[in-house]
Amino acid sequence: MMRLSQLRVLLAVADHGGFTVAAERIGVSQPAASRAVAALEAELGAPLLVRGRDGVTLTEAGRRAVRHARAAVHHLDLVRTEVAAAIGQVTGELRLASLPSATGTLVAALLREFTDRHPHVRVRLLEGLDRDVRAWLDRGAAEVGVVTLPAPGLDTLALGSDEMVALLPAGHPLAAAPAVDVTALAGEPFVLSTGGCRPLVLGIAGEAGIELRVAYEAGEVSAIEGMVASGLGVSVVPTLGRERDQDGTVTRPLRPRAHRTLALAFAPGDRSPAVHALRRVITDRGPDAPSGPGRTRGSPGR
User: Fold this and answer.
1) 89, 122, 146 — which closes off a domain?
2) Which CATH number covers residue 70?
């Protein structure tokens, strides 16, 4: 008979793409995780995973099993958390997905407030690009995720904002000025983000009436910084999470100035008491309580 612990292992392996990370995240040994999945496969009579050099992938049977396992685990967890909420306690697990630039800043400040209020809630943090966060929300791997606005189709609550700045190689002629006109970027080889900042950067250029000469594309800000430091081009990046310029680069404000707004997005479906509690932490701050640079007011909860 399949057990809840086996379903949790299967979900962790599916979410993290392999047994090693999955076992670490849920606190079991790798052999124990392998045995749990093997037992499920034996009971269901079908292989759920294909093991390869680059990790594991789900079979068609595995994808169907994961979809139902996620719903089953979620509803069983809700039994515990809803009963606890009925007697005034918030317990259970909160699955939160974040962007690397926000984890140590806006998210860290938010989680400090949340865990102070609700110490019995376990927080499981996933980290990736905007498209990863959206995928985790869509399939239920995360209940809440940090996204860049606008985020069409998602229920969001504004979390904070930061400034977008020009990223230049050290010694670049544009670095001689205190600020960089957006129009001055038109003739430069440009390193464009493939993450959530991409539409924002293209929008900044569009509003200035220019077309960027995209020479390279990269997902992580650190990769963009490395390419700019090597003299491959210029870029526009967010300031959040950047304590200082990387060696070989300088930043300058844009003219006109531009900002990125980050928000918490909520997965569709039933929400756990922990998710409702997290939402209350944000709305209780009020319009003037900062959670990071340039914090903005969120939309009302529903």
Assistant:
1) 89
2) 1.10.10.10
